[in-house]
Amino acid sequence: MSETMSTTLPGHPAARDIADLPAPPGLPLIGNALQLHPRTIHRTMEDWSRRYGTMFRARIGSRQVVVLADGAAINAVLRDRPDGFRRPAVTAEVSDELGGNPGVFLAEGDAWQRQRRMVMHAFSPAAVKAYFGRLAHVARRLEAGWLQAAAQGHEIDLTGDLKRYAVDVIAGLAFGADVNTIEAGDDAIGRHVDTVLAGVARRSLMPFPYWRWVRLPADRRLERSVLAVRSATDGFIAGARAALAADPGLRERPANLLQAMLVAADHPDSGVDDAAVAGNVTTMLLAGEDTTSSALAWLIWLLWRNPAALARATDEVRRHVPDVAALTYEQTEPLDYVQACALEAMRLKPPAPFLPLEALRETTVLDVRLPPGTLLWCVMRHDSVDARCFPSPDTFDPERWLPDAQGAHRADRQAALPFGAGPRICPGRYLSLLEIKVAMATLLSRFDITAVHATGRPEPAEVMGFVMGPSPLTMTLRPRA
Length: 481
Fold this sequence. Notes:
single chain, 481 residues, alpha+beta, five-stranded mixed sheet, three-stranded antiparallel sheet, 16 helices
């Protein structure tokens, strides 16, 4: 690869400097920091991209940020990782301060290459298929809880139940641990995960690291949650090590993703140690819980608001899954419309509506020179809701994503990137889509949805933490006869 990447489009003028870009007005010293609230920062950047164009600059304290909302340029940038761009160093610094081990999410350079091979093997379609029984087991617990609530006419805490489902799936598939937060109703792990995710995101966006001098109550809660997540991670690893020692045959046929990672780490010259494994266990716990549960919550809300799509998804599930109690992996494969609904929901409500990066070398993006160290804020929901890429962009239209979609009606898969792109595309995408299919098969095969409500408001608000999820949702169900 050349020393300088260029995504300058034909016909564009010679490269400009960052100072030539338009910018929203700010204040001395703090820049635009007061305009950028962590919970709504994604919407502010999207609004500014419509006002100032697909490339502009902003300032958060002393840090200048270049904001990019052009889909083709973002694709090129993502494919120039890890050589040309990395995640911002500030995120790694925040993680290091909290005592975190860098998993594949934050690792860079050779460390990333080594961990990537291990994680991609553990999350391959074949590996995920091998763990399907555990996923189906967790879904049956979810079904039982919903049956009880429906029989009693109770509202279901939809967002809470989906987070517990995602935690139980990750703990079971990835770690071989049966934490059973669904039946216990005690989502202590999930609460700690939410606190860590929100805390890391908040600190990464602060104009200056105030917590090094003054620790607020939120910082003390964050530190307690970090310790709790680390304790859970250490427990998962110790359990997996004990299982491998007790049954050497597991080294040939690991029973879960954590065992597979430990076997890979133990291989001579792997370059991976238990600290790296611990970092990836934490990454799976943090990323796996929030992203999938948020995507599922938005999907169910959007289906409820679109009865025709809900009816078609229900019909597909009931044709291919006659008995969800005996659900098999093979029965999930033909659920094309359910998957199309999930992709359409992620187009409109992406769990990751932005992606911050840092340039590692001098680079030209569009017609703007970016020196090394430039912070580049990629707005992921811009072209995906633009009529030039998606006709009727505000309409929930899953048919765009079907394999046989034709012409202008076919989804532009380069304009909507829910799992990213390039070498650092999300390694857990197969598992996430399978989790979504299994949850929707459980819901639509056994129940009729009678209502989905946003608590205390007509529609759910978009709440940005580490990912973008809805404000609390409730659901009421009627069991099928």
